[in-house]
Amino acid sequence: MTARGFRRRLADLTLPDLDGLAADDAQAARAAAGEFVIASIAAAPGHIRIAAGALTACLWLWTLPAGGLPDRPEGRRWRWARAFQRLPGPGAMIFRLYGNLAAFAFFEHPAVARHLGLTPTADRQARFRAKAGADG
Asked: Are 33 and 121 in contact (CB under 8 A)?
């Protein structure tokens, strides 16, 4: 698995399953969330990128004896990966970083927002800009 693939899978494993969300919409939202996490870390200041990269590499090495990250957040391989979070030091931070960024992007995805009965962000922005232009 490539480093990018590991990062995408880690982001994906932190996301919830939403009942009733179409499989293709869920897949698109999960892929977008994974790419958002990767892009956000890449755009972060150098000290954040270095720390995130080092912790991600440590987690990757930690998961090797168990066979790598699992496909689903369950079972022995997932428990092994989550044990990294309980180590003294900043182990929990990498799960929090990936989880928070992935959740933000996932719930902002238009398909997920519509599924939850919310107006997608782009639609809200377009309405605001149209109103601001009409008022201005």
From this structure: no
Select from 14, 105, 97 the least CA-distant residue to 55: 97
Q: Which structure tokens are listed for 129?
A: 């800009």
Distance CA 130, CA 107 (A): 24
Rounded distance, CA 97 to CA 106, Å? 14
pLDDT tens column, 24-34:
999 999 999 99
Give dist(CA 16, CA 73) in Å, integer. Answer: 10
Distance of CA 26 to CAs 19, 36, 73, 103, 106, Å?
10, 15, 16, 13, 9
Scanning the structure block, which residue is given the tokens 């969330």?
33
Give the percent of the chain with pLDDT over 90: 52
